[in-house]
DNA sequence: AAGTCGTGGAT
DNA sequence: TATCCAAGACT
């Protein structure tokens, strides 16, 4: 089978096995798609479902979000992680409201210019919200193509030009946007990073990686978390989120309960300089 | 271009 | 229990 036929097989598989995710439904707005893409950056689908629903009830449009202080966005972000994504989503909503008439752009370059929107997210919004034929290269698509076409497990680091060319070559003439979600879904459900379910894969007989005996890829450098600055920031942020809206706390309260006081204080200062935390007369607040 | 930036479920 | 890692972006 050539690439076009394989893409068709994957698309057909997708139509039978796709999860019913709310941001994929026909009634999802471009803004809803955009919010989902921000929330899904490095965060699993299962943890995004509920916050996404609540977010869109509260802020159904970019203008609605832009009308509130960024601290409310950070608070509503809850425990999704990487709270700067909330900050950037708020900033992007502000730009959309001020310079795009309140409508999420469909042009990838305009999307890419928004805060928090990189190559992947720009392509994903253009593709999933507007049906554009863009190369959507997320970790799932990279893994599927690396295995199926490259015969190797997913590479580390940023996508190379060659990898991007390969992905572009796989983009079918028709139904390009569906191919992209389908490849992502295959990577998420079947062609998983850990214990891939090759018997369930619709293109297993064409997979170079499977034929090669599923050789292991490069080991990622392990990222530890406990005791790191990020963990300290997480502690401070959690304390801030626990505050009622509009209330503040002093540094001692926020830093309390963390074993390394100097580290926690530094974390608070870094959050301040990042704009994720601010001060008022009472103390620190979101 | 390697480091940094959260969080928690699964294994 | 420790490790992995999930629809990345930014510097």
TrEMBL record:
Essential cofactor(s): [4Fe-4S] cluster
One MF term in the entry's GO annotations: 8-oxo-7,8-dihydroguanine DNA N-glycosylase activity
EC identifiers of the protein: 3.2.2.31
CDD domains: ENDO3c (cd00056)
InterPro entries recorded: DNA_glycosylase, Endonuclease-III-like_CS2, HhH-GPD_domain, HhH_base_excis_C, HhH_motif, MIG/MutY
Keyword Hydrolase included in the entry's annotation: yes
Keyword NAD: no
Reactions catalysed according to its record: Hydrolyzes free adenine bases from 7,8-dihydro-8-oxoguanine:adenine mismatched double-stranded DNA, leaving an apurinic site
GO biological process: base-excision repair; mismatch repair
Keywords of this entry: 4Fe-4S, DNA damage, DNA repair, Glycosidase, Hydrolase, Iron, Iron-sulfur, Metal-binding
Domain HhH-GPD, residue spans: 39-189
Family the UniProt entry places it in: Belongs to the Nth/MutY family.
Designated name of the protein: Adenine DNA glycosylase
Organism, as annotated: Micropruina glycogenica
Gene that this polypeptide is encoded by: mutY
């Amino acid at each position: 089978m050539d690439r076009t036929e394989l893409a068709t097989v994957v698309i057909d598989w997708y139509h039978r096995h796709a999860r019913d995710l709310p941001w994929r439904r026909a009634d999802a707005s471009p803004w809803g798609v955009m919010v989902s893409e921000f929330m899904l950056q490095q965060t699993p689908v299962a943890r995004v479902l509920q916050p996404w629903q609540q977010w869109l009830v509260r802020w159904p449009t970019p203008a609605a979000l832009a009308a509130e202080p960024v601290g409310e966005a950070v608070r509503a972000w809850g425990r999704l992680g990487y709270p700067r994504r909330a900050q950037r989503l708020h900033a992007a909503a502000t730009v959309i409201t001020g310079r795009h008439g309140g409508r999420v752009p469909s042009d990838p370059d305009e999307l890419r210019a928004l805060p928090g929107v990189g190559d992947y997210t720009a392509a994903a919004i253009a593709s999933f919200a507007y049906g554009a034929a863009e190369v959507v290269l997320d970790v799932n698509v990279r893994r599927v193509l690396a295995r199926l076409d490259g015969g190797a497990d997913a590479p580390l680091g940023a996508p190379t030009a060659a990898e991007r060319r390969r992905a572009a070559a796989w983009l079918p003439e028709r139904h390009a946007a569906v191919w992209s979600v389908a490849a992502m879904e295959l990577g998420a459900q079947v062609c998983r990073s850990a214990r891939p379910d090759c018997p369930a894969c619709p293109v297993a007989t064409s997979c170079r990686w499977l034929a090669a005996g599923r050789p292991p890829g490069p080991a990622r450098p392990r990222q530890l978390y406990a005791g790191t600055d990020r963990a300290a920031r997480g502690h401070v942020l959690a304390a801030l989120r626990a505050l009622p809206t509009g209330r503040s706390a002093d540094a001692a309260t926020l830093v309390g309960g963390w074993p390394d006081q100097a580290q926690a204080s530094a974390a608070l200062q870094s959050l301040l300089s990042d704009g994720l935390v601010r001060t008022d007369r009472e103390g620190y607040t979101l």
